[in-house]
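>> received
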Amino acid sequence: MVSEDSDHGAAEPHGTADASGTAAPQGTAAGAAEGGADASDPQVAAAIAAAEAARPPSGASVRIDSWIWSVRLVKTRSQGATACRGGHVRVNGERVKPAHSVRVGDEVRVRQEGWERVVVVKRLIRKRVGAPVAAQCYVDNSPPPPPREAVAPAGIRDRGTGRPTKRDRREIERLRALNGLRGPGGRPEGR
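>> returned
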């Protein structure tokens, strides 16, 4: 029987294959050239080693809620699962459940607070890692976030003016109501 490697030319010489199937020679971190990082830098090498340690065993899959938490697209895994259940996460254009398996090359769209993050999966990881390592696990194709509105905060008083009068307080509450800063039950926050 002939091995698959002999059909394609040459076998991988002393290297390891990353998730995309490309071989990286031993002694260098897999994917160091992909992210534009210098493998000679000890911090980058340690970060890449951490990403490799967080990788699932070969053949294992990673849940979408776990992956978006691991690469820091959401703050907690439960927020990732809630986003999936609410229809805010799409993989290759389809709404997915939290247990959906994600693969290398999938396009993941996560809608968050008025804008959408669009990323392409470059590496699968199961554990949450630091931000520099997480950035090497996907290609970010997101549009820029919408600009923040330049609105003066309501209810800020000059220093040294003393306690607000009843009239001042009513004006502050009116401004807060216009800006939507009211608490539960229609009452101003803090009461």
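>> The chain has a mean pLDDT of 75.
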